[in-house]
């Protein structure tokens, strides 16, 4: 195994790149002013609506009372552990005030990022007991971990965002494949099916259960037809690095001049580092992964070989096209699963739970009638539930044209995409 690439397993979980909106929960960023260069970049990634950060929201005079007021507006306490913060009187006051706020139920969770080699033993006993210090020297990864935790806290307050009906057979098959020893277990997961069937949800739910400490964050990256290593590198680079426009431009230019073998090494290193930071990359394949014959584009085949020693899956693909069986057999580091539409009984169960969660009353006859419109697609269930909540069940059943038109538009968009891809291929 390439230890330079794979390093130490178990480095923290993070979250998707962009998390916009005010939100109801906030994070208090506790740090030494001498670490401002690092924390400022984390704050930029979060935005001022999600955080209590001295440059954004603290009163002009920073004192014990100002700290308490800021903590009272927060749900998450984030400590940037370093030799500087251990010796900071302000940070010590913030930790003392956090203990009080936590006792009152104001602070619900604590995150600690060690941004140098300072040991957790430097912390007060109560912090050592409730938390695992996470060594993190990447500002963007810190921001995504904080965002993931904020979303988790907000979800706990608001209730589960959507009903998920497990796919037992599909989950069992993937679990069996991933249970194999490193080097045999797949590192690239291909989940295939029609739009709206729940491919990304299946990956998030299944990997979230199998790797609860490793993967809580799933970042989607598009890959379009005729795109290659340069486009993939740029998107992964943007997820991982904090750099000036000049530095970014220079890095992209340098990458473009490299031989492809070295380009793929750099991409493999990026994928591995993101994985070690707890982020699973999902490639939204828009006809960019396979050749016309259904083989990997050569650069992707080589890239997967480079990360084949990973002890856990490192990249996923959501696709509408399945690789031919004979070709799949040649790629032992890849796993392929076609998600079928849900059975009539399963779609009724999902619809029933969704309607109950939305506090919509219904009869068994109405449930049976509704299920006929849904074609076994979970996405159609969500659409129908929202429409019923807005217009009423009786009105929806009397005139389901909105759902029918929605399905037609989706089918037309899919056919248009296929036609465009065929046209490009023929040219």
What does this molecule look like?
The chain folds into three domains: 156 residues, Rossmann fold; 171 residues, Rossmann fold (3-Layer(aba) Sandwich); 71 residues. It has 19 helices and ten strands. The strands form two sheets. It has a five-stranded parallel sheet, with helices on both faces. Strands 7-8-9-6-10 form a five-stranded parallel sheet, sandwiched between helices. β1, α2 and β2 form a beta-alpha-beta unit. The N terminus is likely disordered.
What order do the helices and strands come in, and which of them pair?
Blueprint: H1 3-6, E1 27-30, H2 36-46, E2 51-52, H3 64-72, E3 76-81, H4 83-86, H5 89-103, E4 109-114, H6 125-130, E5 134-135, H7 139-158, H8 168-178, E6 188-192, H9 199-210, E7 217-224, H10 229-240, H11 245-257, H12 260-276, E8 279-286, H13 298-306, E9 315-319, H14 325-328, E10 334-338, H15 344-357, H16 364-371, H17 378-391, H18 393-398, H19 401-426
Parallel strand pairs: 1-2, 1-3, 3-4, 4-5, 6-9, 6-10, 7-8, 8-9
């Amino acid at each position: 195994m390439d230890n330079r690439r794979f390093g130490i397993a178990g480095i923290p979980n993070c979250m998707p790149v962009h998390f916009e909106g005010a939100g109801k929960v906030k994070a208090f960023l506790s740090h030494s002013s001498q670490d401002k260069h690092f924390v400022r970049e984390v704050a930029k990634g979060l935005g001022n609506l999600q955080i209590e950060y001295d440059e954004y929201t603290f009163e002009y005079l920073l004192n014990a009372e100002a700290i308490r007021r800021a903590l009272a507006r927060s749900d998450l306490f984030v400590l940037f552990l370093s030799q500087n913060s251990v010796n900071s009187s302000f940070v010590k006051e913030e930790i003392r005030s956090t203990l009080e706020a936590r006792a009152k139920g104001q602070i619900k969770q604590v995150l600690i990022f060690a941004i140098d080699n300072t040991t957790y033993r430097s912390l007060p006993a109560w912090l050592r007991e409730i938390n695992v210090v996470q060594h993190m020297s990447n500002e963007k990864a810190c921001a995504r971990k904080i965002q993931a935790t904020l979303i988790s806290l907000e979800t706990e307050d608001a209730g589960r965002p959507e009903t998920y009906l497990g796919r037992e057979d599909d989950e069992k098959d993937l679990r069996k494949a991933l249970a194999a020893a490193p080097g045999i277990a797949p590192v690239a997961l291909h989940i295939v099916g029609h739009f709206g069937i729940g491919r990304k949800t299946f990956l998030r739910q299944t990997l979230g259960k199998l790797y609860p400490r490793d993967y809580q964050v799933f970042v989607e990256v598009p890959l379009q037809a005729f795109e290659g290593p340069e486009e993939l590198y740029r998107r992964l680079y943007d997820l991982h690095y904090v750099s000036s426009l000049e530095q970014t431009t220079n890095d992209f230019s340098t990458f473009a001049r490299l031989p492809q073998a070295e380009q793929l090494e750099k991409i493999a290193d990026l994928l591995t580092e993101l994985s070690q930071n707890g982020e699973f990359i999902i490639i939204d394949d828009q006809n960019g992964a396979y050749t016309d014959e259904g083989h990997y584009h050569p650069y992707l085949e080589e890239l997967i070989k480079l990360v084949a020693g990973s002890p856990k899956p490192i990249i996923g693909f959501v696709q509408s096209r399945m690789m031919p069986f004979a070709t799949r057999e040649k790629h032992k580091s890849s796993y392929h699963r076609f998600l079928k539409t849900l059975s009539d009984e399963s779609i009724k169960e999902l619809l029933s739970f969704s309607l109950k969660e939305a506090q919509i009353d219904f009869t068994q006859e109405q449930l049976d009638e509704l299920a006929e419109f849904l074609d076994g697609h979970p996405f159609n269930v969500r659409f129908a539930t929202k429409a019923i909540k807005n217009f009423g069940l009786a009105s929806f059943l009397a005139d389901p044209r909105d759902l029918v038109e929605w399905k037609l538009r989706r089918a037309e968009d899919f056919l248009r995409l296929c036609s465009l891809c065929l046209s490009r291929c023929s040219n």
